[in-house]
Task: inverse folding
């Protein structure tokens, strides 16, 4: 979601005549698009802001802004902790950025604009304080013109007790299908072939604006009908909304990738209840079985939080057991980080010590990695379809700064180590040429690790694995 927001912000700045430079040193305006899902993300922004303080004294005209979730969460407090900041805009106010920079350039400010607090007014007023900011799409701000994210909903109403997202991203709202289709057609005109539909709980999507409920399964049919789109992915799913109509749509629509990110967060009922996740482990397992039965080669992935308030060794063991049983393609594992303003921070004590959290994180990761590696070994000797994304970071460290003019003397000679993804979001690395970026190719896999498949391009495959 933040990557998409950054892309839209860059597009709006370019449209307004600004240029993007390749190092903060050259910048007249420095913007941080921030995350507040864990404390660590916020700490990083505050320390980066700290490092910029002296440059402001040396270069007084420079404008510094903090955008996104942390801006929403901190508001004025951010100015108190970093008085050299000029602009603070929440994720619902990003469309105000160009005007805000203009105001500061004229000598005004500082500017703090955020959406209403969840309890700050009637639901309609809160929703209206998070207006949409989606239609400004430009291919030149995407790492790959052929790949794009499309927000189909914003906000979240689930209020999992550990999570700050419902506060900082506002109430759940689904976008009308017609707007989404129009945006995707515009992306196709820009050369896009793969879209990833985004929502915090993407499978609770429902558009009632036409008088009839259009759900994610219906939307997938509509998006699959858009000519020029070859792959459709969607993240993130909530286990409670993984309904049969959606599973069938994934099974029956060839363009929809059988890749399902459905975070569990824990394998213990006691912990899930304290997290207010709205399902039990048995229900989660039943959901996994339904997916596997309908789509045997689906890649299911999950997120887990270790060391949540009150998590015992026994609870944690149940999480390990769930990971072993479900054999996720991969899992993102996080140490619990208390978030002010959430129910968990109010009601429970953060009573699992940091060393225990660290140890559980490492243990769960080791279990998951062993499964991922075993799972990936199945592909050795097989051929997979890959959308080439570009040179891997290893071979082109200069490309880590997106879309910047590259100093040609730094480019290693071709062939380069290239990277791309399969339909199921598996990362594939192979020797290739930079002009392949954006092409669908066939790669025969000859080696696999927990996170990467390695292979070589082949031109006429006899058999193709769906991967
Ligand atoms: N909407 C998505 C993702 C939300 S945030 C979902 O419902 O799954 C992404 C991930 O960050 C979550 O899945 C969770 O695993 C993790 N996360 C959220 N809040 C956290 C916290 N307070 N501490 C540690 N991890 C957290
Ligand atoms: Fe956070 Fe839960 Fe909403 Fe996901 S579903 S964004 S974890 S509150």
Result:
């Amino acid at each position: 979601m933040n990557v998409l927001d950054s892309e839209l912000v860059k597009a709006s700045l370019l449209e307004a005549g600004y240029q993007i430079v390749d190092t903060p040193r050259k910048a007249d305006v420095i913007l941080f698009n921030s995350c507040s899902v864990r404390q660590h993300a916020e700490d990083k922004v505050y320390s980066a802001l700290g490092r910029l303080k002296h440059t402001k004294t040396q270069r007084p005209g420079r404008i510094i802004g903090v955008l996104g979730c942390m801006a929403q969460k901190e508001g004025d407090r951010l100015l108190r902790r970093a008085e050299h900041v000029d602009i603070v805009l929440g994720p619902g106010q990003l469309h105000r950025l160009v005007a805000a920079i203009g105001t500061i350039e004229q000598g005004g400010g500082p500017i703090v604009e955020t959406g209403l607090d969840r309890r700050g007014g009637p639901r309609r007023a809160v929703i209206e304080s998070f207006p949409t900011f989606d239609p400004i799409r430009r291919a030149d701000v995407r790492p790959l013109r052929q790949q794009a994210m499309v927000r189909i909903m914003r906000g979240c109403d689930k209020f999992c007790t550990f999570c700050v997202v419902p506060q900082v991203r506002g109430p759940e709202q689904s976008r009308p299908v017609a707007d989404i289709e129009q945006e995707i057609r515009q992306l196709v005109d820009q050369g896009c072939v793969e879209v990833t539909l985004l929502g915090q709980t993407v499978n609770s999507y429902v558009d009632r604006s036409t008088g009839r409920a259009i759900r994610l399964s219906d939307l997938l049919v509509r998006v699959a009908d858009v000519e020029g789109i070859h792959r459709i992915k969607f993240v993130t799913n909530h286990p409670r909304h993984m309904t049969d109509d959606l599973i069938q749509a994934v099974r029956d629509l060839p363009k929809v990738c059988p890749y399902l990110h459905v975070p569990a967060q824990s394998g213990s009922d006691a912990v899930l209840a304290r997290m207010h996740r709205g399902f039990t482990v048995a229900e989660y397992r039943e959901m996994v079985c339904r997916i596997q039965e309908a789509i045997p080669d689906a890649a299911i992935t999950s997120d887990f939080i270790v060391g949540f308030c009150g998590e015992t060794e026994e609870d944690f063991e149940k999480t390990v057991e769930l990971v072993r049983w479900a054999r996720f393609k991969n899992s993102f594992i996080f140490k619990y980080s208390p978030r002010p303003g959430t129910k968990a921070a109010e009601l429970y004590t953060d009573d699992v010590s940091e060393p225990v959290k660290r140890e559980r994180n490492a243990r769960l990761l080791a279990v998951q990695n062993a499964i991922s590696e075993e799972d990936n070994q199945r592909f050795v000797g097989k051929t997979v379809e890959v959308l080439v994304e570009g040179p891997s970071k290893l071979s082109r460290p200069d490309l880590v700064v997106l879309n910047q003019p590259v100093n040609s003397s730094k480019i290693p000679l071709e062939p380069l180590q290239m990277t791309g993804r399969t339909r199921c979001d598996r990362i594939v690395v192979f020797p290739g040429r930079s002009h392949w970026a954006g092409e669908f190719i066939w790669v025969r896999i000859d080696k696999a690790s927990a996170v990467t498949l390695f292979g070589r391009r082949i031109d006429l495959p006899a058999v193709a694995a769906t991967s």
Observations:
- The mean pLDDT is 93.
- The first strand starts at residue 29 and ends at 34.
- Residues 156, 158-160, 163, 165-166, 200-201, 238 surround iron/sulfur cluster (ligand 2) (CB under 6 Å).
- The longest helix spans residues 354-377.
